[in-house]
Amino acid sequence: MTFKIVNTVRILSIIALVIVFFISYAGLPEQVLILLDEIGAPVQYVTRDLFFYGSLSFIVLSNALLYVLSAILAASPKKTFQLIANYLVVLTAIINFFFSVSLTFVEILNGRENFNYSNFAPFFYLSEGLFAIWLMAFTYSLATTKKDV
Description:
Blueprint: H1 2-26, E1 31-36, E2 42-47, H2 48-74, H3 79-109, H4 121-148
Antiparallel strand pairs: 1-2
Helix pairs in contact: 1-3, 2-3, 3-4
């Protein structure tokens, strides 16, 4: 039951990521800025198609690998493996949130208007904070599950 609930969260995060992915792609110029130097001057560009297919392949591969691993672990009769499977599905949702934030940042970076990029930092800190909370909860759950076995 728990696996179905967290799997629903994963599916919703994938839907949100797909929406953000296509919206951000629609707003990108032909040459996508991906790297700035220390003073904020543009350093490296890639083509829009390379950014699209590279991002898409990275997102699909990471989601597929985590899904397959969690599905294999969820099928196990051992409680510890099922717990790890649930946490991997939640990790997928957190990673999808980070991808969404990153894609939105690239879109803003390549936008035409002047934007203070430091205003966007809390979203990156939020995704890192979610990962830190996930890591602490995962470690605690594994430690308490080992005692029950």
